[in-house]
Amino acid sequence: MAWRTSFNQWTKLDAINRSSLFSKNTRCTFHPQQRCGFRKAQRQVETKRCAPEEADAGGYKDGVRTQPRAPVPLRKPDRLFRPLVFTVAFTGCSFGAAAIFQYESVKSRVQMAMEEENKEQQDELLEACDTTYWHNWWNQLSDFQKQVILVMSGIDEWWSGLSEGQKTVTGIIAINSVVLCCWRIPSMQRTMVKYFTSNPASRTRCFPMVLSSFSHYSIIHMMANMYVLWTFSTSIVSLLGKEQFLALYLSGGVISTFASYVFKTSTRRLGPSLGASGAIMTILAAVCTKIPEAKLGIILLPVVSFSAGNALKAVVAMDTAGLLLGWRFFDHAAHLGGALFGVWYTLYGNEMIWRKREPLVKFWHALRNGSPGRAPPGGGGGQV
User: Fold this and answer.
1) Catalytic annotation present for 256
2) Residue 377 DSSP label
3) Cellular component GO terms, alphabetically (predicted)?
């Protein structure tokens, strides 16, 4: 028993002395799985890190001589080809659809005006009977039904008091609110990140260029953007009309996202972006360019006022500084892309795109009614 104990102590001491002769890296040989996993990961990282240098100078790699070749770019420019084609196609389709919607809107207004003239004569004859009928009908309702009708009438009165631009922007705000609620659903997080955030490194790069313009993760971010859009909605819709405004807004969102793609790819600062700031900058730049003498103010500082032209210059200067200095709090490339597109469209784009929509409207009129000889309503010309 004593011999066995001394033998065990001797073997343990001998094992300790042998293990002390090896370094820490050699001790890993006692764990083959850890050694293989560690060396594979280390070799993979070193290969990626040294690949451009070996490709430039040439040398031996795994026993095989490598030939000198041109450096491999980290971000391929061809990843921007599909977004570029999508941007051009989406912009053209947006303004084409806006021209067709304006045609249908004008046509429906003409039909409604003709129907209202016929109804006025009938309403005058049945006015006395209608008053008695509605009075009896109101008395038969319960208190809850009366409260619901009063609330609905209040909403209808509020809606009727809005301008055409505010009514249009209300739909945009509703869509942004729905998307904001979807961000709060855990099961939809992967879908929201894939389709509602724009990232040039993602496999899905085209559809997020549109959907990310309606996506906000923070309620404060959404409220700030929608407040600016609400403020300028009346002016821009009165200048362009709701159809042209929607086309400009959607196109501005896509073009600003493409500008962000170009900047991120060229500087290799890849990352996701979301928000309607790019599209709103397009609308802001269009209004400030068309009405540069308009007075603007800050909601928290009502005493301070400045012209729209100076405001646009200050915003562009700030985004340019952020782009050059590498600020990452905002997507300054998207802001600049949207602002430049808004300025260009006001100065040149309206004349080049919107005022030349007459052939498309005539084609749609012929396709719609089958009578190419008739003049389409709202065709030709256009609002500025």
Assistant:
1) no
2) T
3) mitochondrial inner membrane
